[in-house]
Design a protein that fits this description.
Length: 498
């Protein structure tokens, strides 16, 4: 009774190094592993402001906090999500104190900075290599040194858009470029409201480009345009969705045909997530702080593995939802490190979800979910198991997806329902048990142990039952696989049964 494989997963990232790196917190609801040394080796590098994938690399833009002085920024990258190299130190300009945003546009990686000396800058490169970077925007775009940060970068209909923020009394600005060099102003006055001080959210939903603002006076606003042209923008929502305490609109994401917005509230309030189906009417879909006031802000949203994920400030937690309404905690307590204050960036790379943190004590951290296991096809015999039989083995035949070799399976890792290990001194052979032209590996499990496990798991007293058995294991490089098969169970007669 063989079950078909759901899909073939190609290009799986080898995860053998995941478990030999810095930290694994198995007590978390989901499995997360740290994939960098704190601060990339320097505890003064306190947080990862941006994560972005470009040309086969995962890039991490960082910042530092230097008491009484200016910090600096660094740009790091990894080809496998584990080993990191620095591509720009004191990124591009000594006065840049942080990398706030990154985006890919027309074959270049663009990087937006935070600069309190001369105003924000944007740099670009076709390769990301050291020495290949070109400055394409400077001095707050227009010589306005009060435009301090490029908070958002996004490509839309042939243009790259850049949203900024400045000092507390300076309105946000929005710019765009078609060639990466010449920038056109969309707004320099906060869409006519000087209280819109930061543009921290950009998202494409339907045919529109949406932006979210930070407004501490009336509550955050959402603006949109179907073309991006100056003068084409319309107000989608204002006044913090009806509550002026909803002051900061951070990251937005599209999930299951709806747009979601991460919202931070005013002092002594916790953040929440809102969503819209049409860009105009919004509804709240989470409790404040996911029920914990310590989660004072929700900063990041990202879609991964058929779920919407959210990162918080305060407890530094990751949450996820498969429907946008019911949320479960994925990681808690700063991934086990209470010095992690909040999730500062998220990105998907090589089938894993990555999250960066702010850590003022030991330096920033990057955490990741290991790639999901390969979908193996398994056939377990006998198809019908009599719990009072005297057989010696339960036999399992394992087929791996195309591109993976049975000889790479580490037999010592194979288990049945995560409780019974394959017998190491029993016969293991490679063949084609089902004659389907795909080779399979035969392994055996102790029948009495399997029967006892099944007997303890069945609540029914019916004579015939069915149960699903799951085989798990790993390749020698750490790549995991998993497959299930259903078998029929014959229960022994009990006294008084007919």
């Amino acid at each position: 009774m063989k079950k078909a494989s759901a899909l073939v997963i190609a290009g799986i990232l080898s995860i053998s190094m995941f478990y030999s790196l810095i930290s694994v917190n198995a007590a978390l609801p989901d499995e997360w592993v740290q994939v960098n040394t704190n601060g990339f080796g320097n505890p003064s590098v306190t947080y990862v402001r941006a994560l972005r994938v470009f040309e086969g690399y995962l890039y991490a833009g960082t910042s530092t906090n230097v008491p009484g002085g200016l910090g600096w920024s660094e740009l790091w990258r990894s080809a496998n999500g584990l080993s990191w190299e620095q591509t720009e130190a004191h990124s591009f300009d000594e006065a840049n104190e942080g990398i706030e945003s990154m985006a890919s546009f027309n074959g270049h990686l663009y990087v937006g900075t935070h600069n309190t000396v001369s105003g924000c800058q944007i740099w670009r490169s076709t390769t990301g290599d050291t020495g290949t970077w070109q400055k394409v925007a400077t001095d707050g775009f227009s010589g306005d040194h009060e435009v301090l940060s490029v908070y958002a970068l996004l490509a839309y209909k042939g243009y790259l858009y850049a949203g900024t923020g400045g000092s507390v009394d300076h309105a946000l600005t929005l710019w765009r470029t078609g060639d990466g060099l010449t920038w056109e102003s969309i707004t320099t006055d906060g869409f006519g409201d000087a209280n819109n001080i930061r543009l921290t959210s950009v998202c494409i939903f339907g045919d529109y480009l949406y932006v979210g603002t930070s407004n501490e006076a009336q509550g955050g606003e959402v603006w949109r345009s179907a073309t991006g042209e100056p003068g084409s923008w319309e107000l989608s929502s204002h006044g913090g969705f009806g509550d002026r305490q909803n002051m900061w609109f951070y990251e937005a994401a599209v999930f299951q045909d709806m747009m979601y917005m991460a919202v931070a509230r005013g002092p002594s309030s916790a953040g929440a997530i809102w969503r819209t189906i049409d860009g105009s009417s919004w509804e709240k879909v989470t409790a404040d702080g996911f029920g914990d006031s310590a989660n004072d802000e929700i900063r990041h949203l990202i879609v991964f593995d058929d779920s919407l994920w959210a990162g918080t400030r305060g407890n530094c937690e990751m949450w996820k939802s498969s429907d946008g309404v019911t949320w479960v905690e994925s990681s808690s307590g700063g991934f086990g490190d209470t010095d992690n204050w909040y999730i500062t960036a998220t990105e998907v790379f090589e089938n894993s979800l990555y999250a960066g943190t702010w850590n003022m004590n030991d330096g920033c951290e990057v955490w990741a979910t290991p790639p999901p296991p390969l979908d193996a096809i398994v056939d377990i015999t006998p198809d019908t198991l009599n719990l009072i039989s005297k057989g010696k083995w339960i036999t399992c035949y394992i087929e791996l997806p195309e591109g993976f070799d049975l000889e790479d399976i580490d037999v010592s890792t194979i288990s049945l329902n995560e409780s019974i290990n394959a017998i190491q001194n029993a016969p293991t052979t490679m063949g084609d048990y089902d004659d389907d032209g795909i080779p399979d590996l035969m392994v055996k499990f102790d029948r009495s142990e399997a029967e006892e496990m099944i007997r303890c798991s069945l609540a029914s007293t019916e004579k015939f039952e069915t149960t699903t058995l799951t085989i798990r294991g790993s390749l020698i490089d750490g790549t995991r696989f998993r497959g299930s098969d259903g078998i029929k169970i014959v229960l022994p007669k009990t006294k008084g049964s007919t």
